[in-house]
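User: Second chain of the day. Same drill as before.
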Amino acid sequence: MIRAVFFDWGNTLVAWEFDPELFVEGHACGLAALGPGAPAQEEFTEAFGEQVLPLLLGPGEDEVDYVVEVGSLLASLRVDADEAAVWRFVEAEHRVWRPAHRIEPDVLDLLDALKERGLKIGLVSNVFDPPALMRGLFAELRLLERLDAVALSTEAGKRKPHPAIFESALQQAGVLPTEAVMVGDRLREDVGGAQAAGLAAIQAAWFVRDGSGVATPAITAEAPVDVLRWLGTT
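Assistant: Same format as last time:
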């Protein structure tokens, strides 16, 4: 019997895509928050692409400490920035990206319908931004109030498909793997990772479709309501 439904973040709970203009704007705003002595945005962005971006986009399952990596990057550019200054950069950059996350009414309707059925709701996400900033964004989008579990790679130390992040969500929700289903757009990370941890898994295809074929979900949900339909058959 399913007692909990866990969701991925990007392109599952919210629509999101990389925006090269926001990428540059985020760096510009972050550097402005550093104050005097900050490097030129062009120099920083070039170095970021060489030193930090591969760590964020690589296939490894160990999560990085983004604040530490930004601090190391600034040090490599001969910028003397203490922890408070680096945090100002990360926070300013994060604010720039907030409007890029769009939540649709039918996703919120799904979460409310699950709550009405007495199911627990969790979020299981690979994110590199500090947890405090992410929880602030979840609250801004009216998600945090609906969540019983929040499992972030920054806190688990591991990225999906590693089982540790799923185990964190299960523990927070107080359910067994066989009592939970994971809903996410990525077949390797969300579907395959959940299945390896003992959960059922649904592919979310209402924003984007992963056609890699690396894992086989219980169903591919074309719309949020399909999750409810599947639950009605279990």
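The longest strand covers residues 120-125.

User: Great, on to the next one.
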